[in-house]
Amino acid sequence: MPFRTRSAYAFLAPYLLIFATFWVWPIINSFLISFQNTRINPWKYSLQSNWGRLFYDPAFYNSLYNTLIILVIQVPVMIALATVMAVLLNSPLLKARPLFRFAFFAPVVVGEVAYAAVFRLMFSLDFGVINKMISAVGFSPVSWFDNANAAMAVIILAVTWRWAGYNAIIILAGLQAIPDDVYEAATLDRVSKVQQFFHITLPLLKPIILFCVVLSVIGTMQLFTEPFLITNRGGPGGGTETLGLFLYRQGFTSLNFGYASAIAYTMAALAVVISLLNLWLGREPK
Description:
Blueprint: H1 3-33, E1 36-37, E2 44-45, H2 47-54, H3 58-89, H4 97-109, H5 112-122, H6 129-136, H7 148-176, H8 180-188, H9 193-221, H10 225-229, H11 243-253, H12 257-281
Antiparallel strand pairs: 1-2
């Protein structure tokens, strides 16, 4: 091996050692743990105790259903809203554009615990501002956290508020990369602004939007903070319990590490499959 190659590997060795110790080995070890019955001492290999249980556990299917509901409703709404926000932020008619860009991106900077506490207070039955607004227009206050559908709506609103601006900034970067000549030529051909948006802007933004969709899918599959803090650990009655929260409950409440590992790998596999499906659906025609 040439001296320069050996030198390069020598410089990389500390990083590779840390990477293998704290990233590669935990992934391999957790996969091996998923095949062990960790409810007995010593642990023993048992395919049925974790992977077998996974396919017949109603609690797992409940958390999977809740996660997919958020994925199907929240992600498309958020991406559509982010696209509209990006177009508005890119408009030359908008004054103080840097200020608005910061304002839309700011929710990501806010701590998860703080913003979750604010949302829980906003939707409180007794003194929440949302119920006060509902009462002001003559309707009865809604008990948001005692009804599964209402609690799920709060989760979807919270996640959308936090991440719509983040995705809008990414899409805005894609918008600014589109040459102005394309729009000038379309304007000379008397193409309306609406037609330009659907036939020029959206097709050219497809790779950026797909990127945002994949990121959102991965984030939704790991959703934990919002159901844990806003709806009090996935309440009411597991109505907002996600896969991330179910994994936490099995691993750190029940101390069933083998089953939690099996859930974690199922989440990862689902995220990969759904992301690949989105990429396949959004592929360019040959």
